[in-house]
Amino acid sequence: MSAGHRLAPPAAIARHTLLLLTGALVMVPFVWMVSLSLKPPGEIFRTSFSLLPEEWHAIENYTKALTEVPLPRYMLNGVIISAAILVLQILVCAPAAYALAKLDFRGRDALFGLVLIGLLIPHQVLALPLFILGYNLDILNTYAALIFPFVVSPFGIFLFRQFFKSIPDDVVHAARLDGLSELAIVWKIMVPMAMPAVIAFSIFSVVSHWNDLFWPLIAVRSESLMPPPLGIMAFKNEEAGNDYGPLMAASTLVVLPLIVVFLAAQKWFVEGLGKGSVK
Amino acid sequence: MSGVSFQNVQKSFGPVSVLRDVSLDIADGEFLTLLGPSGCGKSTLLRILAGLEAQDSGSVSIGGRGVDGVRPKRRDIAMVFQSYALYPHMTVAQNMALPLRMRRLSPWQRLPVFGRLLPGTKRAGGEIAAEVERTAKALGIGHLLERKPGQLSGGQRQRVAVGRAMVRHPAVFLMDEPLSNLDAKLRVQMRTEIKELHKRLGVTFIYVTHDQAEAMTLSDRVAVMLDGELLQVAPPQEIYADPSERRVAEFIGSPKINMLDGVVRERGLIDVAGSTLAVDIDRDQGAEVTLGIRPEAFHVADRSGPGALTGAVRFVEHMGSDLFVHLDMPGVAEPVIARLLAERAPQISAGQTLHLGVRPNRALAFTREGARIRPRVQWTPAAGATVTHLREYVQ
Question: A156, A95 in Cβ contact below 8 A?
Fold first, then answer.
């Protein structure tokens, strides 16, 4: 119990049961996916239920997943796209958020209002205009097509702006007196101080773009550019639907890096939040 | 080394006027304190001097050079903030080195890895590290250089903030309530250290505070500010003993100065609180005045009569060497407080009637509007006892 008080045993048991049940509910599809990825085709469609396969088929499934389709290629694409999007997003969002949080200029609040409106618009609404824009720029079916719609992230600007606002003005003043330019203040003072927000945003950004299916489906055709979810879809089509073992193995491989990264970052995240503030 | 000059500086935030026509000259090497309650505009004035805020009108110069529109880093000033404003993600050494790195290294040399390969970076970096260490040692924080601000106590952070300001030898040193986040004991200690620092560096210090004890003990001159106006700029003893107006008299001194409304009976005599006091002012019969009498200006008198005030004791506070006696006097709304030496005062208890004389020239006269009426024979601040007195009294 984080608050440091102990619950009476019945209450504790009830609470933990509830938490475990909810946790299990969320976990079921993942467990099911991993379980299926270990089974031979015959067992997958059997009516009886078992978590572990009678006959282990893991090696076959995973080999097939890695060799039938260029899964490593998809994953490399995923890394390239997610990393490029994240880096560009931070490059754009941090200075924009700094301006909205700490600089005083005419029209600032109106601009921030536009950012909030940007938050409300679902990506899907913009798909067609973005597609036409990509066509006119002649970048469809390239990495650039997969990256450009996400470079300016209203959510990132909003999140950073809120965090920067919580940093005392005196820190900015001190930095100015110390001789830092406004951009140097952003990169040397604000962003390092906002590390928890940067990490939270990074998790959010990487997860959503690694898993994105909708936009890549529109923007690219060539297999060598496909990010993992699109690749898995291609897989499914080729295999005509009944070879679930390798499909699940591929899905497991695709989710795995996210889980690893998330666990690693989570530790960082907690550490970042725990550090003392200025005073 | 340079003095500072404000000429008719005005500033308002929206409809709120924060600074009204402030003009002030500060001499080279002077320790000047801006004293006033919170919200009086003293911090804004400091920020305008630092270039962190722009004035609406008027001009500011440092060392005879106009600095209006000059960026903060080009003004050759350093500032210590109330919140210290240290960079929490950098070590103490990095915090203190930053102003030097920004000034002495080129942008290329400051690049994380690449910069180290450039010619001259290593030498300049070494010099900076040496200077940081020297400054840190002088402030007694040499052993903390590798710590981060989060791992330091309030007093240590304060020293780091001073060190970061000191390390680049600014011409003017600004301090914005630097001690208000410290506990009382540490505050007194740091006060002494700041005074010594000023002596050692010999540069202009401008110090902002709402704490009169700090203002009185540290400053060469105190500038009292209220509602965006500079009320009086004078040495501490003069501010205390010869205030220019009622608001200054009431702001300085603790317990607060007693304000008694009176009427001139005849030249040099004022009817007040059912008695008559001799106050040498140039006002005609019937003029309405207010007398300000500091608590320690009273002494016990044997009997009532001209020159003595009479009141009923409400209660007595024993402060060790002194007694604070609260009295009700006829025609005075608020209780009058007298500070009497414990050994000289007879046993005083609540309910008793007490006669109090006023030391000569210690009753300050004001008009009802609050302007000071100076005595005909000008008071001189040389009256030796006052300085020690007031230092003691404002604690």
Answer: no
Query: How many CB pairs (< 8 A) connect A and B?
Result: 72
CATH 3.30.1490.20 is held by the domain A69-238: no
- List of E strands, B218-369: 221-226, 229-234, 258-266, 269-272, 275-278, 288-293, 298-300, 308-318, 322-328, 336-341, 353-358, 363-367
User: Does B50 touch chain A if contact means CB atoms closer than 8 Å?
Assistant: yes
pLDDT, tens digit, 9 for 90 and up, residues A45-55: 777 777 888 88
* Residue whose tokens read 């970076």: B121
Rg (CA), chain B: 26
What whole-number distance in Å separates Cα of residue B157 and Cα of residue B153? 6
**Cβ pair B99:A177 closer than 8 A:** yes
In chain A, CATH 1.10.3720.10 covers 69-238
- The Cα of B206 is separated from the nearest Cα of chain A by a number of Å equal to 16
* pLDDT score at B81: 92
User: How many other C-beta atoms lie within 10 A of the C-beta of residue B204?
Assistant: 25
User: Hey, what are B339's tokens?
Assistant: 């500070």
Lowest mean pLDDT among A81-85, A141-145, B7-11, B355-359: B355-359
Q: Would you state the pLDDT for residue A50?
A: 79
Q: Domains, chain B, ranges and CATH?
A: 4-240 (3.40.50.300), 256-393 (2.40.50.100)
Give the C-alpha separation, A229 to A216, whole Å.
9
Interface contact B103, partner A, CB < 8 A: yes
- What pLDDT score was predicted for residue A238? 62
Asked if the model's pLDDT at residue A60 lies above 90, the reply is: no
What are B259's strand-pairing partners? B292
